[in-house]
């Protein structure tokens, strides 16, 4: 059974549309939505090059396809046929490209195409019951194969991104510490110069003052 559906731009992970009714009967729906956003973030950094993949998470599994710099993702029960899940995504992709293909790159705000939810809900209903004649025919369609689509674990997939985040954070911390060190070094150099030349400046000041006073007297 289809549980969640989300669509995002791959280049920056910007969410473009999602099923508004998705997750209402799903426990920990927000947790899984956060995992989806983390997956989109990884994809925006080029971490998963496969254009089609399945990612296991608890009792569910994410399926996604990437086409035209857009990621179409759904989360289903593990028992839901993989073939139907990917054909559902193909239907979404075809309609989304037809309706919004020339607007994807210029979208500037999250969920710019939220009206696409109407098509998501209508299409999802067609795929919910795997026993319908329509879906049985799709399962028997030998022209559409999904055996070669890779399946990975969500911890494995997101772990790559977490390691990169750690490296990025460490790099930022080292850069910040280097700047602090440089500032302290400049302060120490300034103090050393003051200590070195302050006595000379004082002596010169006294000499100039005496010279000025002497001229005044004479």
From TrEMBL:
Q: Does the keyword Coiled coil apply?
A: yes
| Localisation | Endoplasmic reticulum membrane; Golgi apparatus membrane
Could you tell me the superkingdom of the organism this chain comes from? Answer: Eukaryota
Q: Record's Gene Ontology CC terms? A: endoplasmic reticulum membrane; ER to Golgi transport vesicle membrane; Golgi membrane; SNARE complex
Q: Where is the Longin domain?
A: 6-120
- Family membership noted in the UniProt record: Belongs to the synaptobrevin family.
Q: What's the protein called, per UniProt?
A: Longin domain-containing protein
Provenance organism:
Helianthus annuus
């Amino acid at each position: 059974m289809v549980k969640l559906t989300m669509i995002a731009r791959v280049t920056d992970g910007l969410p473009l549309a999602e099923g508004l009714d998705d997750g209402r009967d799903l426990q920990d729906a927000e947790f899984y939505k956060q995992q989806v956003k983390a997956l989109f973030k990884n994809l925006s950094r080029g971490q998963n090059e496969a254009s089609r993949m399945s990612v296991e998470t608890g009792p569910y599994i994410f399926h996604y396809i990437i086409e035209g710099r857009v990621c179409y993702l759904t989360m289903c029960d593990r028992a839901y046929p993989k073939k139907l899940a990917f054909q559902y995504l193909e239907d979404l992709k075809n309609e989304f490209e037809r309706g919004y293909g020339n607007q994807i790159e210029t979208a500037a705000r999250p969920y710019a195409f939220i009206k696409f939810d109407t098509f998501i809900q209508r299409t999802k209903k067609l795929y919910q019951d795997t026993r319908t004649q329509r879906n049985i025919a799709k399962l028997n369609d030998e022209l559409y194969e999904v055996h070669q689509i890779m399946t990975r674990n969500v911890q494995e997939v997101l772990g790559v991104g977490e390691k990169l985040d750690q490296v990025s954070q460490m790099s930022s911390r080292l850069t910040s510490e280097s700047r602090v060190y440089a500032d302290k070094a400049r302060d120490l150099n300034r103090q050393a110069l003051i200590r070195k030349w302050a006595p000379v400046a004082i002596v010169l000041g006294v000499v100039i003052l005496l010279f000025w006073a002497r001229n005044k007297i004479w």
